[in-house]
């Protein structure tokens, strides 16, 4: 049991960190922190991230991807600013979901364009009344000749507001009261337009999280991924969620680490009552709690990803890693704000932005409540949902 990163892993993380400081952070700072990045800025960021493979980390090499394992995926994504991770994730996850089950023609048409950032992709699975329960999806896709007619709404989709196409998870059952028949369909604006818009949110304001509306949208039948009886649709979604949950935890770790670094530096510089506040016992207690939250969260996420790589049942660990890490890192950022006193709540320092951003993370890929029920099911063998 080795808890140390290898020399190669450390070098990989360091090279990504340098790339972020040198190339990405200036782009983020040049744009209004309270407004979504433009399409041009998003493309620019993808161009920078593409040589590191961020748009196709989980795709096999023969598909043009990098084919890294889950742990390496996490080690790399932890180094990215979370808003950039969501940008790349919108591309990468969509590519993975098209690759597995997609036809050779679909792969050839979309995968290279996604990897290069020539096409901005998004995946639409969540709906106003369907999130953690994909069988409750109401967006309908009914065949009409050589097309699938789509009606419905998708929400909380990364890159939706600026996407060129969306991989839509829809219900193809013609009986609204019958069992769900999930399929995946590519809705491409080159085939026909559909309406998208940015969703105003508490955090990640530079992102393009949004929703899409389909009103008798006609997608060519060739755009159906996995066939009209796509038995793998839910399995593919589950497998991507399994990795993405610890990944969300590592986004929180990224932010909490920034808060810790800032708090430690401030404690060494700020003087009160004639001495640096880092010498006060209560300040050291706050720093210790923040550091413990960062370390335990990071290790738990790494462990969950390592178990996925070793093909160990990680349903419980994946859920646990996301739920625990985000909660711990939310508290850590709040404590770091306390170390800074009044400066902690200033917009100048940036901790309040981290505080808003980290609060966004409990929602994607399973809420705390759903993750708790997954953990309970794995422990007892009894589902509290069905």
From TrEMBL:
Segments forming a coiled coil: none
Domain of life: Bacteria
InterPro entries: Acyl-CoA_Oxase/DH_mid-dom, Acyl-CoA_Oxase/DH_mid-dom_sf, AcylCo_DH-like_C, AcylCo_DH/oxidase_C, AcylCoA_DH/ox_N, AcylCoA_DH/ox_N_sf, AcylCoA_DH/oxidase_NM_dom_sf
Alphabetic keyword roster: FAD, Flavoprotein, Oxidoreductase
Keyword Glycoprotein listed: no
Family statement: Belongs to the acyl-CoA dehydrogenase family.
Name the UniProt record assigns to this protein: Acyl-CoA dehydrogenase
Lineage, opening ranks: Bacteria, Pseudomonadati, Pseudomonadota, Alphaproteobacteria, Hyphomicrobiales
